[in-house]
Write a structure and sequence with these properties.
The structure holds 2 protein chains of 2 kinds. By secondary structure, chain A is an all-alpha fold. Chain A has helices at residues 2-14, 25-30, 35-64, 73-95, 97-103, 107-110, 114-125, 130-160, 170-185. By secondary structure, chain B is an all-alpha fold. Chain B has one domain (2-210). Chain B has helices spanning 2-19, 30-35, 40-63, 73-95, 97-103, 105-108, 114-124, 129-159, 181-210, and strands spanning 161-162, 165-166. Chain B starts with a helix and ends with a helix. At the A-B interface, helix 2, helix 4, helix 7 and helix 9 of A face helix 2, helix 4 and helix 9 of B.
Chain lengths: 191, 211
């Protein structure tokens, strides 16, 4: 039981992929201008990462290891992720047009979101079993969504405030993220 | 003709290195930029590894640009890029195991570095091989320069040294936060402000000259 709790709290707060480990910074800075788009991106990422953690785990232990092809891990995983994103996109288009409307634009971007690949690789290095790996994927994605939402909320307010011209846009967002990361460091002693 | 070719080669190269510097202008490849830049040596090696992958993938995608069908281009690019990343990863595991241990997953993550993807899509897919190599070299070295600069600043304040050489005086107390996540964000933010100010100054001087 405690292992599960450690994974959940660890992935969302203590080892948050964006705030504590520097993964997924591009979408973090790119799609955090508005809360709505941030939420859409976060949901799409959560969806894909959860499935990707499940599938890449199976690929690693049932295809790559028996065939002694572990050195092809990077290629195999990124292909799985790219294919998965395509499949999710077409499936959503058919099954749930309204959800597709909401998430559609973000889906192609997920292939190059490094959180997805990082989670898949770390699941293997940490030696999780299938269920733990899937849970870990889901929680990491929730952590990503949390960080994205917080920054988007702050940036919406920053738009309205009177900032020096040279700090508007990315520099301001970066310094803001730095301050957020300091706050996240406070979770360090939780586990 | 030869002269013209040479000048376009150089201008494409300089475009990547300075005008459209991937880190400070295009805002691409942020994860390794922030993730590995705690020591200057890591910055240089990460930059060079990325440059290698970028040049090779640009060359091959440019050679294959008329063969790859438009619809499957993204998976095709990914396979090309991932092959070169695997090569550099295996090379580092064999010959530079310590460096590989420090850089960790970030080497594998070169695959999803948006700089490489963006250059494949927007440059190599439309231009001949030689120009694509120039673009890869320029962008790659531009990336290397900016992350080396960033890591030098972070190493100087975080450990009081640059490339392992002690710079700060004996009594200097290292700022531990520079080696951690917040330091990375804040240093990059401050450097970006500096770049913006310099750019503004430069363009104002240019206008003055024209007027």
């Amino acid at each position: 039981m405690s292992t599960w709790l450690v994974i959940i709290i660890g992935q969302i707060l203590v080892n948050n992929y964006v705030m504590c480990q520097f993964f997924g910074i591009c979408p973090f800075l790119g799609v955090s201008k508005k809360v709505d788009t941030a939420l859409g991106m976060g949901l799409a990422v959560t969806f894909v990462i959860t499935i990707a953690s499940f599938v890449t785990w199976l690929v690693q232990y049932y295809i790559l290891e028996p065939l002694n092809l572990v050195y092809l891990q990077t290629i195999a995983f990124i292909l799985v992720i790219a294919v998965l994103v395509q499949v999710v996109e077409s499936a959503l288009k058919k099954l749930s047009p309204s959800l597709y409307q909401a998430l559609g634009v973000y889906l192609p971007l997920i292939t190059t979101n490094c959180v997805v690949l990082a989670v898949a690789v770390n699941n293997i290095t940490d030696g999780y079993n299938l269920l733990q790996a899937t849970l870990c994927g889901c929680c990491s994605a929730l952590g990503f969504t949390l960080a994205l939402l917080i920054l988007a909320g702050i940036r919406e307010r920053m738009e309205l405030s009177n900032m020096p011209k040279w700090m508007q846009g990315f520099p301001g967002a970066l310094i803001m993220s730095g301050l957020m990361a300091i706050a996240f460091m406070g979770f360090g002693g939780l586990i | 003709m030869a002269d013209q070719k040479k000048s376009s080669f150089i201008s494409v190269f300089l475009n990547g290195l300075i005008t459209e510097n991937p880190t400070f202008t295009l805002m691409l490849g942020m994860c390794p930029t922030l993730g590995v830049t705690t020591a200057a040596m890591n910055g240089v090696s990460m930059g060079l590894a990325t440059t290698f992958v970028l040049v090779c993938s640009n060359l091959f995608i440019s050679l294959l640009r008329n063969i790859i069908p438009d619809k499957v281009r993204i998976p095709a690019y990914i396979v090309v890029i991932a092959s070169f990343v695997t090569m550099i990863d295996l090379f580092m595991q064999a010959f530079l195991p310590e460096l590989r241990a420090v850089l960790g997953t970030y080497i594998q993550l070169i695959v999803v570095n948006c700089i490489i993807f963006a250059r494949a899509e927007s440059f190599a897919a439309k231009n001949p091989p030689l120009l694509s190599i120039a673009d890869g070299l320029g962008m790659g070295l531009g990336f290397t320069c900016s992350i080396t600069l960033l890591s030098m600043v972070r190493e100087l304040f975080g450990s009081g040294s640059i490339f392992g050489l002690r710079i700060m005086p004996e009594g200097y107390l290292p700022m531990a936060i520079m080696n951690q996540v917040p330091g990375g964000f804040i240093t990059l933010g401050l450097m970006m402000i500096l770049v913006n100010v310099i750019k503004k100054y430069a363009s104002a001087r240019k206008e003055e000259k024209l007027a």
